From TrEMBL:
Keywords: Metal-binding, Oxidoreductase, Zinc. The lineage of its organism: Bacteria, Bacillati, Bacillota, Bacilli, Bacillales. This is Alcohol dehydrogenase. InterPro entries: ADH-like_C, ADH-like_N, ADH_Zn_CS, ER, GroES-like_sf, NAD(P)-bd_dom_sf. Transmembrane segments: none annotated. One of its GO terms (molecular function) is oxidoreductase activity. Residues 8-343 form the Enoyl reductase (ER) domain. Its cofactor is Zn(2+).
Amino acid sequence: MKALVYRGPVRKEWADRPMPTVQAPTDAVVRITKTTICGTDLHILKGDVPEVVDGRILGHEGVGIVEEVGAGVRNFKVGDRVLISCVTSCGKCEYCKKGMYSHCEDGGWILGHLIDGTQAEYVRIPHADTSLYPIPEGLDEEALVMLSDILPTGFEVGVLKGKVQPGDSVAIVGAGPVGLAALLTAQFYSPAEIIMVDLDDNRLEVARAFGATKTVNSSRGNPVEAVLELTEGKGVNVAIEAVGIPATFDICQGIVAVGGHIANVGVHGKSVNLHLEKLWIRNITLTTGLVDTYSTSMLLKTVIAGKLEPKKLITHRFPLSDIEKAYDVFENAAKERALKVILYQ
Ligand SMILES: NC(=O)c1ccc[n+]([C@@H]2O[C@H](COP(=O)([O-])OP(=O)(O)OC[C@H]3O[C@@H](n4cnc5c(N)ncnc54)[C@H](O)[C@@H]3O)[C@@H](O)[C@H]2O)c1
Ligand SMILES: [Zn+2]
Ligand SMILES: [Zn+2]
C-alpha cells in the first residue's frame, strides 16, 4: 500500500509500505476513506517531536471502513464505517477508568507518533472496540474527520477546562483549526461575547462568520489593550490559548478577568513566564492538558442533530495520492487561505 512516511526532520515521502495486519486479537485494520493533516504533523516534520522515528507513517485523524478484525473485537465487523479517534485507549487501565484516555498505559496519542498512522491507504488500530466510533448511515464523512482531534481538543481543553458559562466574555487567542473548534463549541454555552485574536485577517473574517462577536488583529497595536478596551477594562472570564508560543500565553495573562480562567490548549516548545506576582491576587484558574477525546460521542450527536457544523472548517480537498501537494497548501495556510484539508480515496 501507499503511505506518507516521515523520513527525519523536514523530509517526507509518499512511499510503498507493507499492508498492516492484525497483530493482537483487539486490533482492527481500517481502509482509510478520508484523512487530514494536523498542525502537530507539521511540528513532527520540523523535528519538534524527536520520539517520532524515521520510517513512521504520519497522521492521527480519519474515517474509514473496517477491513479486518482480530478475534477479540466485539463492537465492529468487516465493512463497518468508523471514525478513528486520535487517542487510542484500552478502556481498562487506571487512566482509562478515570476518563484520561490520553494517558492510557497501552495507548494515548500513539497514531502517527509511536505507531504508524492514518495518512495511508490502510491503518492498524489497536484496542479497536474503545478507539473507534461507529458512523451512522447517511452521515457526511468529511465533517466527521473533524471529530478525530480538533473538535474534542478545542472543546475539552479549551471550552470545558475554561468553564465557559452563559453570559461570559470569552477570548480565543489563535484562530487556527483548534481555536475555531473552540469558537464553534463555546457557543453550546451561550457566552455573551467571543473575541477572537489572530494575526491573519482572513482567519479573523472566518471567525466572525463562525460566531465571533469581535476580532482583534494582534499584529496591529497592543492586543491586551484592545481586549481590555472591548471589555470595559475588566478583561474576559475565559481566555483560551490556542497557539502555543510565549507571546500568546502573555496575551492571555494580560486579559483574564478577576475570577477568570486561562485554558491553555497550545503545545509549547519554549517555557513561558508565569506572572504569578500579578495573577495571585486575581483569583484566576489556569488549566492545560492533552485531549482525552471523552467528548467524541457527545460531539457526534451534536453533528447528527445539526447543532454543530464542522464541515465549515474544510477549505481544500485532494486525492490521498496528492498528499504532498496538500502538505504544501497546509504549510502555507495564510497565503492559501487554508484551514483543514481533506484527503480522500
Ligand atoms: N492540547 C492538545 O491536546 C492539543 C491537541 C491538538 C493541537 N494542539 C495545539 O493547539 C495549537 C493550535 O493548533 P492549530 O492546528 O489550530 O494551529 P495553527 O498553527 O493552524 O493555528 C495557530 C494560529 O495562531 C495564530 N498566531 C500565531 N502567532 C500569533 C500571535 N502572536 N497572536 C495571535 N495569533 C497568532 C496563527 O496566525 C494561526 O492562525 C497548536 O499549538 C497545536 O499543537 C493541542
Ligand atoms: Zn492533531
Ligand atoms: Zn488504558
